[in-house]
Amino acid sequence: CYSNESKRKLLNVSSKTLNSYGAVSFETVREMLAGLCNQAKSKTLTIAISGVAGPSGSESKPVGLVYIGAKISSFKNELINEYNFGNIKRNIIQQKSVNEALKMSLNIIRDL
Question: Whole-model pTM?
Fold first, then answer.
């Protein structure tokens, strides 16, 4: 879900969370994971990524800041990490995010 509207409508991320912490935050990724888990039929690996891939960021949320979460829907354990890949090309930030999400997913599965 890219837009705040889709985060709210499809994943039930609260407007309060988005207004308080922003779309790129630990709290938003946690709610994105919860929304995905609520939709899962059985043990399902869920992954949520929210970040600033550019071309511009802000002082508090610079280009390269990414939050990535992974969770198995029927378990309480979740893993959410913050990354700062630096002010690099948008597609490289996206590639690095996917690579980290896959590593996190393997760690979650390994811990079952």
Answer: 0.95
